[in-house]
Amino acid sequence: MTFRQRLSISRRSLLGGAAGLVTAVLLPWESQAGAATKPTPSGQVVLGISQEPTAFDPRLPHIEVDQGVYQAIFSPLWTVDPSGKMLPRLALEVPTVENGGLSPDGLTWSIKLRPGVKWHDGTPFTADDVKFSIESVCQPNFPAYSTIGHNLVEDIRVTSPTSLTWKMKTLFAPYISILSWFMIVPSHLLKGVAPLGSPFQRNPVGTGPFKWKERVPGDHITVVANEDYFDAGPLIETAVFKYVPDLTVLYTQFRTGGIDYIGLQGISADHYAEARRLPNRVVLAAPQASIENFYFNLGRPQFREKAVRQAIYLAYDKDSIIKEIYYGVPHPSETYLPKESWAFNPDLPKHVFDIDKANEMLDRAGWKKGAGGIREKGGVKLAFSNSTTAGNHLREQTQQFLQQTFRQIGVDMEIKNLPPAVMWGKYWQMSEFDTAMVGIDFMTGPDPDASIYFSSQSIATKTGAGYNTMQYSNPVVDKLLVDGAAELDRAKRVPIYQRLQAVLREDLPFLVQQQYVEIEGTKTNLKGYEPNINVLLNDWNLETWHWV
Q1: How far is residue 71's CA from residue 73's CA, in Å, rounded to a whole number?
Q2: Which alpha helices (DSSP H) does 162-276 contain, by range?
């Protein structure tokens, strides 16, 4: 899992600013006077990614790579550009007080939809589809990716095929960002259908710029141009999402021309210097919102004491990891937010690597060394497995380094890596791991809300929805998340989220290693690619990609 300069939805932009009036970016064949007749899509682009997409109903639990496929096949009401501005998609405009889409208190929403939009099977898209998509994820026992924000929506009324209204139970500032990632699904195919194992999973139907063609498990997904797409584009005829879990092999295929764009983990740091010298390639390194973490499963008895987590962090030589394994490319961090975020807390305690102090802390906490030098307490050994994507050689080197270092404090860590589809499936989503090496974009679009990861209501093993896979429960964190989401004024939200970061840094439910710098590349004659820190995969504007 990986990835994004995030900008806030301030009071002005959420309740009356100009962001809701932004129109779609013009393609090369358009002009300010209006679009010419669409050209016939041509050519093929192979997108090389390191993980395999496996979930094709966007309402269900998924990870970044799945979202990348959704961005091609489905459409949200609006999306977010690299500057943080909202761009209308299925909606004609992003609702604001100024355009009448939001009431002054932010509780009543009125959405105007594009007329004439069709699903890939030819069925007209209507406001009923939006109503169904929001309501369906909140149904009892529905295994939703997240219900956050949606569960505050009530009294949804379809006022015409192209308009609907709803009310919010309480003010929830991040909801406009949540909807920028929320893909609308077809009610005529999914109403009354059990979500798991449905035919839709094998042949998803959307309104996006590309239509589903095929999936070859373990190898690729192919999508083809939707020539009835409601917006500009697409310009390419075929896009192939090719998954190559071994990052060295992935890079080799980019270097030799087998893939046209390399993303999702992208080019590993040890290949960066060479990649920059490759002929006929454009290689970019830019800060991302994704944060690399050592993730605890707090449901395991080994990790319930904060002293244990603190000691492990003291034995975590992340400066050496970043310098020696990651070639100094990423930025060390202490928080879940990228430093580009307006809510970033720059005053958190800086990590210190101290083996002696770690041992002293475990001694004081009563964890005594037993057979083989491994500590134990109350019949529980300080032993666990650590898992990540098999084939991610930098993470594997990090695991081996940590394994040796942790032995110095009486901690036994077994390496247990899995294929991407297994690692980030039920094993991850239902907290079956002990610890994990994982990169997470904790934010909600351009908003610092991370309720889906930190709220006790987002523990899927207990509530059935959410991504709090570390099973973290802290009443102080829960309250800060609620308080931050209930305030529209960014100046008032900043101290709330900075306090949240301080609490997490003290409690250490997960150990932050670094903020990612994503190294991605394309062939020189592939145009349209634009890194976007506000989305989960940089194919967000795939309909604009084209060959020259």
Answers
A1: 6
A2: 175-181, 187-190, 199-202, 247-256, 272-276
Please give the sequence-ordered ranges of beta strands (E in DSSP) within 356-486, or none if there are none. 368-369, 375-377, 380-381, 383-387, 412-415, 435-440
Written as one string, the DSSP assignment of 384-411 is: EEEE-BTT-HHHHHHHHHHHHHHHTTT-
Is 473 strand, coil or helix? coil
Work out whether the CA dihedral 36, 38, 40, 43 comes out positive or negative: positive
Phi and psi, residue 383, nearest 5°: -135, 145
| Domains observed in the chain | 289-516 (3.10.105.10)
pLDDT digits (tens, 9 = 90+) for 357-412: 999 999 999 999 998 999 999 999 999 999 999 988 899 999 999 999 999 999 99
The pair of three-digit structure tokens given for residue 130, joined into one six-digit string: 């939006």
The reported pLDDT for the residue numbered 11 is 30
DSSP code per residue over 49-76: ESS-----STTS---HHHHHHHHHH---
Rounded Cα–Cα distance for residues 36 and 482 (Å): 47
Mean pLDDT across the stretch 115-129? Answer: 98
Scored b (16 or more CB within 10 A) or e, 204-224 reads: bbbbbbbbbeebeeeebbbbb
pTM: 0.76
